[in-house]
Amino acid sequence: MNRLGLGLIVLVLGMVGCATLNVIPGTKVSDTKANREILDICERYRHAMEERDATTLLALAHPNYYEDSGTPLGGDDYGYDGLKDVLTKRLSALKTLRYNIEYRRVDINGHHAQIDIRYDATFQLATEMGDRWERKQNDKRLELENDGKRWLFIAGM
User: Fold this and answer.
1) pTM higher than 0.90, yes or no?
2) How is domain 21-155 classified at the architecture level of CATH?
């Protein structure tokens, strides 16, 4: 193979290697209309968390919401009614909250969507011994379901 042929192969391979997928800016998620719609709902959730707005968070939850808390025992599981109690108690204990989300993946299967995220939360917690700052980071999966009109959370809030 001559130098020109080899050079063309290297050039083509370099261009292919540099090609990037079209992703939603600031995420690792493919830029599609459906994915943007899902991430819009997730951003409403994130903003409501930062504002400690339990009313908005409940409005984003499906009536069939169910949380298993990631544990094998069922004693800490709760549905929509329990979500209201959990949000009210936890958010009222916070004085401030910064809640960032890195969107890693969105999978939509019909009326069901799974969103893999990495969250980074820094918050000021009111305690009996005074205010305390904490930071939590973790991977998490949010699950949404479309009720025919809009996407609502069914797990992961």
Assistant:
1) no
2) Roll (3.10)
Query: What's the pLDDT tens digit per position in 67-115?
Result: 986 666 766 789 999 999 999 999 999 999 999 999 999 999 999 999 9
Are the beta carbons of 125 and 134 closer than 8 angstroms? yes
Task: For residues 45 and 83, give the distance between their C-alpha atoms in angstroms, rounded to a whole number.
Answer: 14
For 8, 9, 24, the CA distances from 16, given in Å and listed in that order, are 12, 11, 20
In contact, 115 and 144? CB cutoff 8 Å: yes
69 and 76 Cβ atoms separated by less than 8 Å:
yes
Domain ranges of the chain: 21-155
Ranges of H-type helices in the chain: 3-18, 33-50, 54-59, 80-92
